[in-house]
Amino acid sequence: ARDEAARAEVARERDLFRTLTENVSDLIFVLDSAGYIKYASPALRGVLGHDPAIAIGRPARELVHPSHREQLHERFALLARHPERSGHHTFEFMLQHADETWRWFEAVATNSLDDRAVSGIIVHSREVTERKTTDLALQQTRMQLDVALQGAELGVWSADLRAGFCFLDAN
User: Fold this and answer.
1) Nearest to 32 by CA among 148, 119, 133
2) CA-CA distances (angstroms) from residue 21 to 18, 40, 51, 135?
3) Using an 8 Å Cβ cutoff, are 121 and 30 in contact?
4) Quick one: pLDDT at residue 56?
5) Which residues pair with 29 in a beta bridge?
6) Fewer CB within 10 A of the terminal residue: the chain, N end or C end?
7) How far apart are CA 1 and CA 167, in angstroms?
8) Alpha carbon of 8 to those of 20, 44, 68, 86, 116: distances in Å?
9) Distance between CA 13 and CA 18 in Å, rounded?
10) Residue 19 in contact with residue 41, Cβ under 8 Å?
């Protein structure tokens, strides 16, 4: 009866894990110490249009934008070599969608190579393309405003009503 209850509990936990991973939009990868994909969550299909089963065994760097590969390789190698300093490492990079467009992701990587249940580096990623696009547009608008203000030789007033002061930037 105990064995049966234990098996039922394991099956329940497996079903819970499957349900969770199938119903999130974040990407979860488990990479081996050489950077090859050991596990890719089902969200890979919905987010990037890639079949998770085909990703298994491929180098993760194949999905990464060429301009980000070297930096990610260095960070990954450091994470793999120094598990005592692992913690959570956050970084941003672009991954290629199946339609050949590039999408921005923010990821947190954790070295779990010594964890027998995982034996890999867990990379939890979420798409931030819209945020990055908005940030870039805002940055460009600020630069254009700065150029326009400098050319017009106008000042800009800033007021902080709570603190009770005004500031004039007269260029």
Assistant:
1) 119
2) 5, 10, 14, 30
3) yes
4) 96
5) 40, 123
6) N
7) 76
8) 18, 29, 44, 35, 22
9) 9
10) no
The mean-pLDDT minimum among 21-35, 84-98, 155-169 falls in: 155-169
Better-scored residue on pLDDT, 45 or 153: 45
Task: Give the pLDDT confidence of 87-130 residue by residue, as tens digits.
Answer: 678 899 999 999 999 999 999 999 998 889 999 999 999 999 99
Length reported for the chain: 171
Burial class (CB in 10 A: 0-12, 13-18, 19+), 124: middle
| Structure confidence at residue 171 (pLDDT) | 57
User: Residues 112, 104: contact at Cβ < 8 Å?
Assistant: no
60 vs 35: CA distance, rounded Å: 6
Distance CA 101, CA 63 (A): 11
With 80 as the cut, is the pLDDT of residue 152 above it? no
- For residues 107 and 123, the answer to whether their CB atoms sit within 8 Å is yes
Q: Is 49 helix (H, G, I), strand (E, B) or coil?
A: coil
Report helix, strand or coil for 91.
strand
